[in-house]
């Protein structure tokens, strides 16, 4: 079994990062100019890393599949970003943010990484304000905060319901400045197809120019993947239509271990599914749970009448409403972590109390808050979200409660990385949602933005230098090396193979079928039988895909169907690994809920004796079963307990 | 719903385009406009035809990728929505819908409804930032900012860079886009330091990219899916004028704009 070395620095928790920075190897300015770094992706992690590395003097090449780096899906994050500033004087600290994150992740994250994340969180807010990010402020001119799930303090900074947009545009502006200076070469409408290894190290990538269809080779001294998560395996998710796993999956097949693939976050507050033509799901920010109360009817007959349109939610008397989160979790109430809130909604709907036409929805009700604070206050806080809801559902949430249901939102799993954010392939780094590192089995709200920017602005720019410090004598790479030519040919052949299938079924039809298998068996509730069934069904679907997919047009032009086909082909492999990982993990933790393992009250039941590890899956060949490696998690500083939000 | 669609088809940047008429049937009034396009494309693929290429990504109105000119209006008939947020309940059974790409010389068509908007990126690269490196910045609460200015700055910063303002303008002016970024920074102390240089550099690049001038028709504000106010253009003009008059150093090549 391969030895996983997480390379956690020694010493007390609070000193590890300081000590690391004090002793790590650096690259001097003259040498930086000679070293090239490829960064794939321009979201919060990618754009902040590309800009910061370029500011340091490295030569950076940055890639995105969108027409502009500003469109990466970080832009869609709504609610906010956490930081341990304690500006509210409510008892927050770096330790408390660290502890909340570890506990929120159900004790399946690495202590040292999470502590570092909490530590640099404050720098992020400072940096963003300096860049001109217009965070919400109080009348005195200082920054405002709101509270989020899984925390008892208010530590979330926000820019209305568009925090991700504003943070991304901040990183994009820093990136734009470096592009102008010539330190970053930007490649838009380019999709990474594979990573190139030379003598076991990552030395470049193969990309497809999505406008001309040409396949290109790009070389560098190190490769950074900031390509986001893989929620689109489920077809319906809150991810962007183009969000995909190709970069991380190809990296996995070249030797990078895949960490905790089954850890998927199902977000509790999304607009419910309304038809089989639906292409994506829309999130309603978790911040709404600050003022909205979640309920379903207490009586089944009321729920039934609502489903048939014979009763309106506003006609249900207060005593006939079941505010089930407040009932089950009095201490945290509507602000329990996402996994807990999602499962509780599923439990009520499965028991027959769901509302909406399909019965797969619960109410998020603002009438109390509107009565208490006035409509204008609610409008100032959530106006754009209410407007978005009304556009989609055609109902006014100021007058009638919102309907919500859980949906796939984020993937905690990703490429396994060590403390330096390097994968098991030397020279290949993974940052942001693309790695597995900080959120354990469940991510807290407003922590994804924090992690993306922490990795890009403040962690990778240090840790990558430790790797590059012994690369300073390595001359600039030629992309004409035989390894590059070989990888390019393989990518080209794969595209040709897809074009040559000339079958009868569309790419989307396969994607929808995969999504359904995943949602039914590898979604909110999982069990051995369902997971085994999923593994078989995915393998069959994959076979059918390669025999019968239909892609029109040519490979040497703009061809969105071909782009989708390549991504779905990878989802069809990754989906199986997710099911295998879920089957292996005979416990419930965070977002991974195995129905066989629950407490009598229906809470997740961990098995710390056997599963207190990060699963790091190793690719062993096309038709071979993947190999499981374990990084045992050592909780040196935190007492491991059963999570309790009661 | 059954609909007739007249869609601009153009194989690539160099070929000549034309309108092609399609029929779609059984469209749910609850589906979004792009989901209606998905249904059309699915049927085209099954027939072996080339589906209609269009830009889209987040489908929740924030990434700014979608960009359809629907019945003569950028993003269609609704106020304050992007194409991806437009829903079919806004149309009637039997309607004919005309769908075109953005039409502006600085936004050349790449294929069908996809245009190249990299000119916007070039304008941001010219100065749409505060020149600070990562690290070494003051505490976030070190400089209080009035809530009014922070809110006005946020109003301007809400721009999604979709280009509807340019598509709506008879002059293909990018003034609303440029002024939104200029205003976001001009209203904040962090952005004031290099405000004069910024506005001149961005306006110069705007002209350089071939965008037209503003003649105050207000079409940009009317069609902006994020309701960016035209008062930002007035602010940019003030900034530009004072920069030209007062700034000790004027960058070469700047001009136009007012």
Structure notes:
The complex is a heterodimer of chains A (646) and B (258). Chain A is of the alpha+beta class. Chain A has helices at 16-23, 29-32, 44-56, 94-104, 111-131, 163-181, 246-253, 300-307, 324-328, 338-350, 367-373, 375-393, 448-468, 482-501, 507-521, 528-548, 560-584, 608-611, and strands at 36-40, 59-63, 81-82, 156-157, 184-187, 190-198, 201-209, 215-219, 222-225, 258-259, 264-270, 293-297, 321-322, 362-365, 402-411, 414-415, 428-430, 613-618, 627-632. Chain A has a 5-stranded parallel beta sheet, with helices on both faces. Chain A has a 5-stranded antiparallel beta sheet with strand order 11-15-14-12-13. In chain A, a hairpin with a 5-residue loop joins strand 7 (201-209) and strand 8 (215-219). The longest helix of chain A has 25 residues, at 560-584. The mean pLDDT of chain A is 96. Chain B folds into 2 domains: 3-111, Beta-grasp domain (Ubiquitin-like (UB roll), Roll), CATH 3.10.20.30; 118-246, Fumarate Reductase Iron-sulfur Protein, Chain B, domain 2, CATH 1.10.1060. Chain B starts with a strand and ends in a 12-residue tail after the last helix. The chains are: A alpha+beta (646), B alpha+beta (258). Chains A and B meet through helix 3, helix 5, helix 6, helix 12 and helix 13 of A and helix 1, helix 2 and helix 3 of B.
């Amino acid at each position: 079994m391969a030895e996983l070395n997480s390379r956690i620095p020694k010493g007390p928790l609070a000193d590890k990062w300081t000590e690391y920075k004090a002793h790590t190897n650096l690259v001097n300015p003259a040498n930086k100019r000679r070293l090239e770094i490829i960064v794939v992706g321009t979201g919060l992690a990618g754009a902040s890393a590309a800009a910061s590395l370029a500011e340091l003097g490295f030569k950076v090449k940055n890639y995105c599949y969108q027409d502009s780096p500003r469109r990466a899906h970080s832009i869609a994050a709504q609610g906010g970003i956490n930081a341990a500033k304690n500006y509210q004087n409510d008892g927050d600290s770096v330790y408390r943010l660290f502890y909340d994150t570890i506990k929120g992740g159900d004790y399946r994250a690495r202590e040292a990484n999470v502590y570092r994340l909490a530590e640099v969180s404050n720098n992020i807010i400072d940096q963003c304000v300096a860049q001109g990010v217009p965070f919400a402020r109080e009348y005195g001119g200082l920054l405002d905060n709101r509270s989020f799930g899984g925390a008892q303090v208010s530590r979330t900074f926000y820019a209305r319901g568009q925090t991700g947009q504003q943070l991304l545009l901040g990183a994009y502006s820093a990136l734009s400045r470096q592009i102008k200076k010539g330190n970053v070469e930007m490649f838009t409408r380019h999709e990474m197809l594979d990573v190139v290894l030379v003598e076991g190290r990552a030395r470049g990538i193969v990309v497809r120019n999505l406008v001309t269809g040409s396949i290109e080779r790009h070389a560098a001294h190190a490769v950074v993947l900031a390509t986001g998560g893989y929620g689109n395996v489920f077809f319906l998710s809150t991810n962007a239509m183009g969000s995909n796993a190709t970069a991380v999956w190809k990296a996995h097949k070249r030797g990078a271990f895949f960490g905790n693939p089954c850890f998927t976050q199902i977000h509790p507050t999304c607009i419910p599914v309304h038809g089989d033509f639906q292409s994506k799901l829309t999130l309603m920010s978790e911040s709404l749970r600050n003022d909205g109360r979640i309920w379903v009817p207490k009586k089944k007959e009321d729920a039934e009448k609502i489903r048939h349109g014979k009763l309106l939610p506003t006609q249900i008397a207060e005593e006939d409403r079941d505010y089930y989160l407040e009932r089950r979790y009095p201490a945290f109430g509507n602000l329990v972590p996402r996994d807990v809130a999602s499962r509780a909604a599923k439990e009520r709907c499965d028991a027959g109390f769901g509302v909406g036409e399909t019965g797969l929805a619960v109410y998020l009700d603002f009438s109390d808050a509107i009565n208490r604070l006035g409509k204008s206050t609610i409008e100032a806080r959530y106006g754009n979200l209410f407007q978005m809801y009304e556009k989609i559902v055609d109902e006014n949430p100021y007058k009638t409660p919102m309907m919500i249901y859980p949906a796939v939102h984020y993937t905690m799993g990703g490429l396994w990385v060590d403390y330096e954010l390097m994968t098991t392939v030397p020279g290949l780094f993974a940052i942001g949602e693309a790695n597995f590192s900080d959120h354990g089995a469940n991510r807290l709200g407003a922590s994804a933005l924090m992690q993306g920017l922490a990795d890009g602005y403040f962690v990778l720019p240090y840790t990558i230098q430790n790797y590059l410090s012994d690369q300073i004598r390595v001359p600039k790479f030629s992309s004409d090396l035989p390894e590059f030519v070989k990888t390019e040919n393989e990518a080209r052949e794969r595209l040709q193979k897809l074009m040559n299938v000339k079958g009868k079924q569309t790419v989307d039809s396969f994607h929808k079928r995969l999504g359904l298998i995943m949602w039914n068996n590898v979604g909110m509730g999982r069990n051995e039988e369902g997971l085994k069934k999923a593994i078989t069904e995915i393998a069959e679907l994959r076979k059918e895909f390669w025999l019968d997919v239909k892609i029109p047009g040519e490979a040497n032009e703009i061809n969105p169907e071909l782009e989708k086909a390549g991504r779905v082909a990878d989802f069809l492999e990754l989906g199986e690994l997710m099911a295998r990982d879920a089957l292996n993990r005979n416990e419930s933790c965070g977002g991974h809920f195995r129905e066989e393992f629950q407490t009598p009250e229906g809470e997740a039941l961990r098995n710390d004796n056997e599963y207190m590890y990060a699963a790091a899956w190793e690719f062993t060949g096309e038709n071979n079963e993947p190999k499981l490696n374990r990084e045992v998690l050592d909780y040196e500083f935190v007492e491991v307990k059963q999570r309790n939000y009661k | 719903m059954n609909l007739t669609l007249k869609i601009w088809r153009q194989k690539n940047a160099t070929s000549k385009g034309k309108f092609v008429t399609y029929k779609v049937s059984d469209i749910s009034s609850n589906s979004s406009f792009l989901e209606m396009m998905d249904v059309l494309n699915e049927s085209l693929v099954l027939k072996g035809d080339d589906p209609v290429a269009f830009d889209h990504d987040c489908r929740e109105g924030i990434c700014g990728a979608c960009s359809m000119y629907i019945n003569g209006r950028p993003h269609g008939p609704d106020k304050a929505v992007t194409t991806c947020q437009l829903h079919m309940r806004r149309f009637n059974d039997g309607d004919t819908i005309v769908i075109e790409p953005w039409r502006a010389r600085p936004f050349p068509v790449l294929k069908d409804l996809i245009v190249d908007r990299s000119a916007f990126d070039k304008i941001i690269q010219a100065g749409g930032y505060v020149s600070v490196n990562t690290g070494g910045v003051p505490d976030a609460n070190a400089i209080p900012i009035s809530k009014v200015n922070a809110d006005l700055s946020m109003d301007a910063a809400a721009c999604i860079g979709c280009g509807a303002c340019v598509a709506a303008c008879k002059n293909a002016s990018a003034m609303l886009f440029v002024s939104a970024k200029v205003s976001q920074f001009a209203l904040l102390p962090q952005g004031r330091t290099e405000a004069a240089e910024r506005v001149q550099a961005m306006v110069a690049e705007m002209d350089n990219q071939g965008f037209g001038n503003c003649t105050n028709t207000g079409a940009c504000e009317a069609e902006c899916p994020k309701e960016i106010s035209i008062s930002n253009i007035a602010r940019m003009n003030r900034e530009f004028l004072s920069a030209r008059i007062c700034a000790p150093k004027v960058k070469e090549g700047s001009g136009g704009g007012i």
